[in-house]
Write the structure tokens for this entry.
Amino acid sequence: MTTDPRTWNAGELVTAAMLNQEIRDQFNSLFGAWTPYAPSWTAATTNPALGNGTMIGRYLKIGRTVQFHVELIMGSTTTYGSGAWSISLPFAAAAGAGTRVGLAHAVGTIRVAGHTLVAPLAANFQCFFPASSTTSNLGNAGATNPFTWAAGNGLRATLTYETAA
């Protein structure tokens, strides 16, 4: 989908190809399949390593609005690093006031609901979960939050945000 609509000129001969490009193709892109992307997974102190785990990302971009989803499944050789985890966005976030908030789920022997956050101009997002089972304070997702991760556990995140371009 293009973000800049065509400027039509008075007296211009409008052809079927022009209409297809400016109307049909733009409209169809709203209903097209999401685009895959390869997110990167890092941490504040020591980066994790995916090993034989899997991580997929996909997004739908309409103008400067992006809806995206990331799914990370831990493998038997996955290492979790240390410090707060970050995952790359498909596009850098726009400048502006406020942080964008989305949904996150950690799935292991229990399921924990959390949030995703994207700061203005960020290239990555972070997930936050309750810091312990006895508090509602949120802490960054990491090797031991919201639980100690193991093979087969999953992290899922979904968010809508405005891109820089």
Summary: The two ends are 13 Å apart (CA to CA). The first helix runs from residue 16 to 29.
